[in-house]
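Curious: explain these tokens?
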Amino acid sequence: MSPDDADTALLRARAPEPHADAAGADVATGSQGASASAPTPAPSPRRLTQLAGLSALMSAVLAACGGGGGSGDDSGGTGTTGGTGGTGGVGPDSGNPLRPGAPGTETRPSTPTPSPTPSPAPGPSPTPSPGPSPSTPPPPSQPTSITTAEAARFLHQAALSASDADISAVQSMGYSAWLDDQMSMASYTAGWDWLMAQGYNRLDVRYNSQYSDFMMWNQLVTARDAVRKRVALAWSEIMVVSVSSLEGDTPSFAMAAYWDLLNRNVFGTYRQLLQEMTLNPAMGAYLNTRGNQKENPATGRLPDENYAREVMQLFSIGLYQLNTDGTPRGGTPTESYGPSDVSNLARIFTGYDRDPAGHQAAVYPVAYRNPMVATASRHSNLEARFLGATVPAGADPATRLTQALDIIANHPNVGPFIGRQLIQRLVTSNPSAAYVGRVAAVFNNNGAGVRGDLRAVTKAVLLDPEARRDPGVAPPNWGKLREPMLRFVQWARTFDVTSSDNRWVVYSLESALGQSPLRSPSVFNFFRPGYVPAGTAMAASGQQAPEFQITNENTVATYINFMRDRIAYGYSSDNSKIAANYTRELGLVNDPAALVARLNLLLTGNQLSASTVSTIRDAITTINADNESGRNNRVWAAILLVMCCPDYIVQK
């Protein structure tokens, strides 16, 4: 597809007129791995014509999600979202997210430096009991029949794409049985093992982080266990580690061990996931538990509080006390922890470092795969009082860690706090309190007396009556913006993208898409779960749209340019070629209506409006398909137009 053909089809398909403030800067096309500070070429007249409509397109996307344009603010939802912001910065020092001061703002509690010698702690107070649990209806009954559109829509929430085979499998097996089959599937080749097979443990490449990008694209595009990979990716945006911030040797292997940890635990228990994440060397390096030492009154040294704060704020309970349905306990935000809780809990995470038995990192970096181990002489033995409970003084580090993590994992906030974020990542940005309550109830008890059964929780998220209802009868704010990296992965899986040499040389896509797997700019993820675009109908009604925090006219433009070139030309780098297979689509090239219908099903679950279908069909019909070049152009343009329209970008 020539650039002019793509732009002409896009302009024909675009209905809105450009806003007066439309973007006027050009965006480099298809420049992977380029520096963000690279000079931007002067805009061509053709590209300026294309960009003139992007403001209108952005407004259309906002409108489809209930908004009305405008830039974002820092307000967030109550309870589960407070303080998970942060603008810039890396890991532990990423700023001070907002917390309620004026209405609609949020800040993280400041943690003043405690005195070297702890003051006598008050007697333990019990952890507040949860509020009344909402009534939990039985799981939705399986429909007598599942349409192809319903199956595709389910797959878009539960997995990474919807193939013809997967649609048929969901229809024949039913939602629940299909999920059981997927969740029982053996995990794909571990990221660590793939890196080893490629020889990336060599001395001359061990400092490169780019191999973690190659590993992730291989995992996300080729793995058969797509549900596991989708849910693991969601968890990577909750318990965040970013390779962009890791220093030292073998960062790619450190991230592979972290990624494999997520894959290993996403259908296990929350308590085990929390244990392994706490001792993971990548997390230890990212949030400063690695090398963290006990207090020293003589020097004034105190335990680093970074992980202690974030494990509560982001990985478990959040900033505010919650009812089981995620609403504020008592009706108004009440802090779930304070500075004393942080400073006391920080003592538990002292004394840990990489396992010395695996320090042959130059040849086989097993130290980044093994859990961290504690040195007793560096571990604080002081009593730790937090969240209304006490870890007594004097026990060994492992015992104290077990006791502390038990306290966190059993806090009543964990179910609604984690459950709501999983709903947001997989299904909708604005779940009802009843939906959150049903998922939290399953977290609290899977029906067999097990707390934190993540397999049961994931099924509860995906099989809930609200998730499975017809989006046509859902509230206007239902759904979520598809994350850019997920759009790219969906394209790659839908059209059988392959790597010519299995190296998957695709670098970080941060500059092209605004995000790339395992490359969050801070511990607060790419966006906050409570983000609200300012000046929109969503802001007026208190609705949230997390992914819009990384959405603006520039990212919309770069996404369109990037996908145009990837759809048509694939991706070539370092003598490695990545290309799609459009054989089935080319078979429909002389029937534009059938071609658009196929793309509508596979990419959106038939969510394109009749007018959008008509507009795309009419646009691609103008492309001459009498020769091979024209036939390719028609297919490429059809895919691009579907993947750039609001009906697709907003997943319902």
User: Anything to note?
Assistant: The radius of gyration is 25 Å. Residues 553-569 form the longest helix (17 residues). The mean pLDDT is 83.
